[in-house]
Write a structure and sequence with these properties.
Blueprint lengths: L3 E7 L4 H13 L4 E5 L5 H4 L13 E4 L12 E5 L6 E2 L8 E6 L8 H6 L2 E4 L8 H16 L25 H15 L1
Parallel strand pairs: 1-2, 1-6, 2-3, 4-6, 4-7, 5-7
Helix pairs in contact: 1-4
Length: about 190
Amino acid sequence: MKGYFGIGVEGVSKAMNVGTLFRTAHAFGASFVFTLRAQYNRREGGHSDTSDTPRSVPTYHFADLSTFRLPAGCRLVGIEISDEAIELPSFRHPRQAAYILGSEREGLSTDVQSLCDYVVKIPTRFSVNLGVAGALVMYDRLLTLGRHAPRPVGEGGPTETAPVPVFGEPLYKRRQRLRQKAQAKQ
């Protein structure tokens, strides 16, 4: 899968939820994880982050918006239940993305939402746990940007393997062949 992603939280109050999110991000191959305006207790979060993500994945803690930074070209995608948000099944994930989830009670603040390139919602009847929401978003990213065999029409697993990507010959070879054809016509 080309590109990268990171995932983080704003203003959370439950370290166990952050630990669960970080562990899941580690499992899905996140390039980085982060907190923003959060008092994350790593020891407490470690009860659910049994993979000890901060020892394997770059982890950033931003005290406020003035210190918040993302890599160049990285799109910020907020996960929030709002009328204006794009439903996750209809969303095309950016190749370079950082996903941010809000606190358990408050959700994403309006100032963070204003920084987002996109705001996405999970089409559920009511809000789900922060770790579950993050897992759903990362799984959707994997499904839509990863290379997998097509789903079968009937029940069960795929009947064919994932297609192998087809690449043309190098660009310089194509240009060389075009020049040779042009010279032959002269």
